[in-house]
Structure formats: C-alpha cells, structure tokens
Amino acid sequence: MANSSDHIVARRIKVRGLVQGVGFRPFVYRLALRHKLKGWIANGTDGVEIRIEGRKSSVPSFLEALRHQAPPASHIDEISAEEDVPEGLNDFRILASIDLTDETSEISPDIAVCSDCLQDLKKQEHRHDYPFINCTNCGPRFSIILDFPYDRSNTTMQSFMMCPLCRKEFEEMSDRRFHAQPVACRHCGPEYSLHMNGRMIREFNQILDLISTMLSGGKILAVKGLGGYHLMCDALNEKAVGRLRRSKKHEGKPFAVMFRDPETIREYVWLSPAEEKILCSWQRPIVILKNRKTLAHSVSLGLNTTGVFLPYMPFHHLLFERIRQSLLVLTSGNLAEEPIVIEDQQALSALAGISDAVLTYNRDIYNRTDDSVVRVINDKPSITRRSRGYVPVPVKMPFQVNGIFAAGAELVNCFCIGKNDRAYMSQHIGDLKNAETFEFYTEALDRFKKIFRISPHLAVADLHPDYLSTRYVHNMGLPVAEVQHHHAHIASCMAENALDEPVIGLALDGTGYGTDGQLWGSEFLVCDYHDFERYCHFEYMVMPGGDKAAEEPWRMGISLLYQAFGLDIPDTGLPIIRNIGMERIGQLTEAIDKKINCPLSSGAGRLFDAVAAITGICLHSRHHAEAPMRLESELDEHCVESYETFATKEHISFRPVIRRICDDLREGISPATISAKFHNTVINCSVDALKRIASETGIQKVVLSGGSFQNRYLSEKLQKKLTRNRFQVYTHSKVPCNDGGLALGQLAVAGKRINSCR
Ligand code: ZN
Ligand code: ZN
Ligand code: FE
C-alpha cells in the first residue's frame, strides 16, 4: 500500500542541449516505463519536452536518471521541471514532431561503438565478436544516410533483411536496440572480406589472423572504415611507415596513429585531463598531442606532436584484441589531394597498388566523412578538421538563415547551408583545385539539399574572383552575396558564440582577398555582421611568385630580407643565402623590382613562412602550413623575450624584427629561441593594437579567428594576455578557425543583411 503522501503528480520537463538524433527519446521512454510513469516526449525547438504523471516518489529518481544516465552522444545543457495538473493518462508515448525542421535535426553524426555493445560482443550469442554490432546509442549514422527521414530503408542498410532475432529487438520498446536503424547480427548483417594476392577470404577469424601476421611483417593494408578507407601499418616500424609515405605520393602531412587504449597513449605522448576527455568522447576525433617518446620517424616527420585517436569501430576493438601491436598508423586512404576513397571497386584498384591487401565490407559508405581533428587550446577543443562525429550537427544561429547557401573558401573547403535558424556545415571537403574533390563538393551539396529539404534562394561567395567556389556560385543562377574573407572568419566565430553586436575582430590567417585587391591576412577589424572597418594590419609584404610563395617559404624569407637589407642580402651571411644560392635570389629580387607576379600580402601565415625560412627551420614545405607548424614545433617555451615592432595607426611593421632576427642568428642564438621571441612579438604587438582600438571604440569584446590560431602557443598566450588586460575573448570550438569554418561566417553575414532588408 502506497504512502498516502505519495499521490499522483504531473511534471512538465524541458531538456535543452544536444538531445535529438542521439537515441534520447527511446531512452526517456524506457526510463518512464521503469519508473511506472505515464505521459509523453516530443521534440521541441531547442531540445525535447517531456510530460510525466505518476507517483510523487518516482519523480526525483526519474529526474536524477534523466540527467545521469542519458545516452553517451547526448549533451544536456539544462533541465527544468514545472508542476502540472494530472490528466489521468494511461500510457507513455513518443509523439511525432509537427515541424519537419525538428525532424531533420534527428539526423545524427556517426557514433563510436558504446561500452554496452562492447560487452554484448562477448555476451550475445548472435553477435559474438560480430564487427557490425550497434544499438540506439551507437553506430553508423550520417555516413550511411541516403535520404530523410532516418529509417533503415533510407540508409545503405536497406539491402540487409533483418533476421527474426534482430527484428524482435528492433520492435521491442524496452530493448536497447529499439528502433536502432542499422541493427544487425552475424546471421543477417554486413560482413568483411579480405582481398590479397587474387584471393578473397571471408571467414572473420581467419581475416584477423592474416592481418595480424601482415602487420607484424611490416605490411600495409587498405581497410574500409566508417566514413572512408584507411591505410594501416605498424606505427613503430619505420620501414613500413616510410614505404607508406612514399607510395602515397607527395605525402608530407603527418600520419594519424590509433592506440589500443589511453594507458598506451600516455606512454608515448603527454595527455592532459581535457585532452583525454575529448579523446575518449563518442566523436573519437584525432587529437594532436605533444610527443613524449618517439614513434617511427616517418609518422610525423620530426614534428613534436602526433595525431592520436582511439578505436571507434567494433572492428578496431576486435583487431587490437588479436594483434601484438598497441599502436597503428591509420591514415586516410587517398592519393595526394584526392578525397578519401569510399567505393570498394576504387579501393580494390587504386589502393591495391599501395597496399599489400584490401579489407572491405559489403555495406556502402554513402556520405564520405574523414576523421575529425581536434587540438586542445586553453582546455577547450579547437577543431581543425570537422567531419566524422561532428557533421551534421547544426550551429544554432541568433537569427534566421533559411535558404542561404554559403560556398566556403577553396583550399580547405566546407560549405554551409541554412534552414530556419540552423546552419548546417558540410563535412570537410578539401582542396577544390583537385577535380575529384570538386566533384565531391557538388555531390555533397546536392545531398545536403536533399537530406535536409533545403532549396537555396541566395548563394554567398568569397570576394576572391578565382576561387572555384566563387565561380561555382556565380554559375548557380541565384542572387549572389559576397563577403570579404576575414570578415567571414570573424563572423563565423561570432555566430558560434551567438554574439550579435559590434566587436573587435582579429583575423590572423594565411591569405584572403581584400577589398583593395591585395591579399589580406592579419586584420584588426571593428565589425558586426553587416559590415567591417579595417583598423590596422601587418605591413604589406611582397609575395614573389604569388601562390607559389605559400608552397616555397624561402621566397617569403628572401622577400623580407630584401625589404630589410636591399642588395646587401649576401652580407647577412645567413644559411638561407647559401641554401638557396645567389642565382635564384637574384632572379627573385629582379622579379620584385619589376613587380612580376608579386602581389602584396598582409597574411600572418606568410610572415610565419618568412621567419621559418630565415631561421632555416623550413625552406620548402611539403604541405599547406608546414612552415608555421614547424616554427611552432621548434619553439622554446621557456623563452619570454621578444622583439620590437614599429607600429603606426594603420599598420605594424616587422622590418625591425627581421633585422634583429638576423643579428640573433649571427650571434648563434638558437632557432628555438628566435621562434619563441618571434611568437611573443606577434602576441605583444597584437595586444597593443587591440588596446588602442578598444580605447578608441569602447569595445572590449575581442573575437579571434583565422588559420594562424591553430597555433596553440600563439592562441593560448594571446588569449591569456588579452584576458589579463580585461578583454572578453571569444574563440572557436564548434567550427574550425581555418577556412573550414569560413562558410558559417559567410552565411551569418548574408543572413543578417537579408533580415535587415525586410
Ligand atoms: Zn551500442
Ligand atoms: Zn540479425
Ligand atoms: Fe582564411
């Protein structure tokens, strides 16, 4: 007999946060059943709404469980509960959404295999060591979605018929796999096959044994992952890693390494609690961590960091159970700048040439998703490449952006498309100058339009007339809006921080097209979404050879030496002079004098290139941004000294800095110290300029964006110094600070302009 005070009550509960498309509604359903509560749950605009009715004594434990037992991929910002009048409901229901917008946000990113499923791998007879196990809380999502709504028939699981066992779980409301669309078991689901030497092996145990032997023998394997193929080898075997690097053609980027577990990671790299949390999150991104013990040299080619991640597919876990190795190179399966391979036929032809065997499985990958890359800066995640695990979670905008398509940049492209007040960023696309990548761009756009039911009525482009994305926009036959590159960078950071007021923006970047036709990239702006004013920038530098200067940092080095010393360059006696040779230097200075293909640039990235070259740290770069990465990697963190710049109201000149760097080099001061002094200089002169702009405008909010902020030292020190100077500092955590986040800013600027026209 229930206590008399334990009468029937009702509550109306609102849960705000990432609670859609992550198995939250079935979770609440099961929770309500367990607590013998009646009522319903429905999606709302900002989360979910729940109504419960039942005994008063059940309410506290229900709320407690709601907060603490929520699905791993959900994130609760806030729970509020209000009293209501009981209506005598007699069951608990999941209500269908009325508005389609809420439903499309049910399209979830891919989720790493959960711990319950890892246990089921050993407990469930029909899924014993079955590598495609998944449940309501985990498994493939975005990568297999063909269309909306998210039902099995609209995924690449459509060709697999559920067996009676799976169907029972799928239909049983109280089961962990209730409505888990990709549910499968070894009787009915997808399976792996290994292709080697003209043979095909399908027995999974035998496959694992063969892979194990091959890895130990230094072989390279092409392996089908969740969002694309990987190339895999032993991360401690230099011969294997070196061969992989050579066969990937012009590959100069660091390789990512998958580790068995966090314990092994701690042996090789330094790991802070914030970094560990992100590493172990359900998104399972690659996290850039500082080396402690060396791996094979060819993994990251002398950089002091390694891109590290943990197993996220059931297959990865089963593999590590079987093999001797605790760490494997797992790099994207592609050639040069092409997108990662997702098609089995292409893998069997293109990747077979650079691997000793190809492991594939018979479920198609529909939406290509690279592994995401994150760096932790000031204990906050800073996303460098946003794809698997993050896409297609929308960014909620402070205003309407419906029907706007923002095309993004060119080299590191993502596009963005608006639906009501949500901005959907595409997965990482890559360099549009590559024909296959451009095809991926247009295909991904078509799919976003279809899946999210959006037909754009306005297209937004960068000001750069030659970006392929700009040309694409102008051929769409839609009204076009143009947004300056660095205004878009700052606007993207404002948008993800829901700022809608005038701010001071500091964009430190590679290069972007300016309103004066020069290449900008160190911009101190006062702006809102509508417009911007350029208050200050680093002094223009000559960029001999244009785009070539970005690939060959020595060009920027010589250019700045020429600016500082004129024809006396040889007298500096620097190693760069010997390395490049007077003949090439002569040709370069002649081109500068005659202004042949010598655009002007204020790009911070180009300044970092110049210093990397002058100090001899990096004369030639093998990939985009290698020189600034190496300059940061070499840096001596204990050095607090800096150089003096020369600043006027409009610009900051680094000429005196270049001269002092040459003095330091001649005095035998190490490149590590010089790099630190240079970084400190950039920080100090930026803070000085920002203080001046703040006192002129009365604005204390500073927004930081642009690719240079991937530099952890620069970001952390600058943020700390600005905070000490009472600035409110805003940085990126949802989209990249590099050009991969640009489209969000383009969308925000265009959206705001349209709204105010109405
Ligand atoms: Zn699971
Ligand atoms: Zn089955
Ligand atoms: Fe940029």
Describe this structure in words.
It is a single chain. With 758 residues, this protein is α/β, with parallel strands linked by helices. Among the domains are: 4-94, 2-Layer Sandwich (Alpha-Beta Plaits); 192-361, DHBP synthase (Alpha-Beta Complex), CATH 3.90.870; 538-730, 2-Layer Sandwich (Nucleotidyltransferase, domain 5), CATH 3.30.420. The chain contains 24 helices and 31 strands. An eleven-stranded mixed beta sheet has the order 7-6-14-8-9-13-10-12-11-15-16, with helices on both faces. Strands 28-29-25-24-23-30-31 form a seven-stranded mixed beta sheet, sandwiched between helices. The radius of gyration is 27 Å and the shape is globular. The protein starts with 7 loop residues before the first strand and ends with a helix. The model has no long low-confidence stretch (mean pLDDT 94). The site of one zinc ion has 8 residues, from helix 5.
